[in-house]
Amino acid sequence: MCRHLGYLGPVRSVSSLVTEGPRSLVRQSWAPKDMRGGGTINADGFGVAWWGADGFGRYRNPAPIWSDPFVTEGLSHIGAGAVMASLRSATEGMPVERSACAPFTRDGWAFSLNGVVRGWPGSLVSLAERLPVAELLRLESPTDAAALWVLLYSRLRSSRPEQALMRLVHEVLDVAPGSRLNLLLGNGSGLWATAWYHSLWTLVDEDVAVVSSEPYDDDPRWRQVPDRHLVSARPGHLIVSPMEVAVS
């Protein structure tokens, strides 16, 4: 359905994180390796969020990432030690517009979805109606990903990221069985992700933590995340837990 990547580590240019490597995120926009029936290319827009010395920033474009000169001409001048990037493969019937492109952000958090909520929008009505109207009015775009972000953010107020992700995935599956829910969340110091149907990989050592839909190079440290597992990662720290087990 989409591709996404989260990075924590030494400061490097935002551009390098999406353009470098034999299977870079840019290449994954037209030649992904493991879409699992979720389309063939990821050309319905992209976005990048970063946490750097000058604060938090975000850039999004509904055009294919390979067609935007700012990726190499602008993002190459932005350095950051924490980055989230996302490519979009829009679900049929959902708009292709800038506001529909992840990462979705708020208060230093960033979020991306690789997947689809079955039965959207009707399937999420019972979850959405529990939110204050003011929260629903924050919905950036009429898409399942934007709705999941509003629902997840409401849970982050009272739960740790692991708990919020676990709770949301199971609540969505209760009302929308068969949904594909690879969620990626970051706040500049940690990365959290779920693998529910789609592919997910990690590369973690003492200096770097990367969580990505696919490896962007041939580094032997890449490890595939088993399906139905949750990831918590930062440099020097990686926990991969079964999603059926509650996170305490």
TrEMBL record:
What catalytic activity does the UniProt entry give for this protein?
A: gamma-L-glutamyl-hercynylcysteine S-oxide + H2O = S-(hercyn-2-yl)-L-cysteine S-oxide + L-glutamate
Q: Which GO terms describe its molecular function?
A: hydrolase activity, acting on carbon-nitrogen (but not peptide) bonds, in linear amides; transferase activity
Asked if the record carries the keyword ATP-binding, the reply is no
| Main EC class the enzyme belongs to | hydrolase
What does the record give as EC number?
Answer: 3.5.1.118
List, for all copies, the residue spans of the domain called Glutamine amidotransferase type-2: 2-248
One Pfam assignment: GATase_4
**What name is this protein filed under?**
Gamma-glutamyl-hercynylcysteine sulfoxide hydrolase
HAMAP family noted in UniProt:
EgtC (MF_02036)
One GO biological process this protein is involved in is: ergothioneine biosynthetic process
Q: Which InterPro entries does this UniProt record tie to the protein?
A: EgtC, EgtC-like, EgtC_Actinobacteria, Gamma-glu_amide_hydrolase, GATase_2_dom, Ntn_hydrolases_N
**Taxonomic lineage of the native organism:** Bacteria, Bacillati, Actinomycetota, Actinomycetes, Mycobacteriales
The pathway it acts in is: Amino-acid biosynthesis; ergothioneine biosynthesis
| Function description | Catalyzes the hydrolysis of the gamma-glutamyl amide bond of hercynyl-gamma-L-glutamyl-L-cysteine sulfoxide to produce hercynylcysteine sulfoxide, a step in the biosynthesis pathway of ergothioneine.
Sorted UniProt keywords: Glutamine amidotransferase, Hydrolase, Transferase
